[in-house]
Amino acid sequence: MFEHYVGRQLKLIEAAQVEPEIVFGKGGGNKSVDWFVILPNLVVLVEVKSRRLGPAARAGDAALFASLAETLGGAKEQLTRTVERLADGHPAFAHIPTDRPMLGLIVTAEPYYTGPAYLLDHGVATIRGGRLSDVPVTTASARELEWLVTHGSDLEPMLLAEMAKAAGGVVGLRDIGKKPGVDNPILLNAWDSYPWPTTT
Fold first, then answer.
1. Minimum mean pLDDT among 110-124, 137-151, 173-187: which range?
2. The CATH classification of domain 2-193, taken from the options 1.20.120, 3.40.91, 1.10.246, 3.30.70
């Protein structure tokens, strides 16, 4: 359900072609990232992770490292597999362009505040592209994604600017925030559909 919800959010981005997960290999045993967001000058590879942090992990217990490894480490495997198939020119990926920069985006159900540090410390901040350019990786919570998509077609140059600033580090998205004066229509519709009690 969360993966589907993320796809609905991504489809709000103007000028974006959003493609779903690709199943490939003998017997369909391999899967790509969950979503591909194809923009005129950028392709965003989106891997969705719904696991939430438990109380111990939220408090900074050692359980946090296991959660980060399972969530962000697992996402890197999907991203790496996808980049490798794109670089190899796998026929199942022929509809995904490789003539422009790419960004790996891990979307989590809740904020992983230590996520950027984990990406840097565990070699997840960049995926080797082979014949393609290396692919920087970043994270965003569901809430941050709900804000990012409010920028519509302006989001692409913002992402490219953040990628340029990262210079081998983690691409930061938290400063982009929500576009002033623009509400997320999915959230608005959800709010309006709730049967709020009326006062008499």
1. 110-124
2. 3.40.91
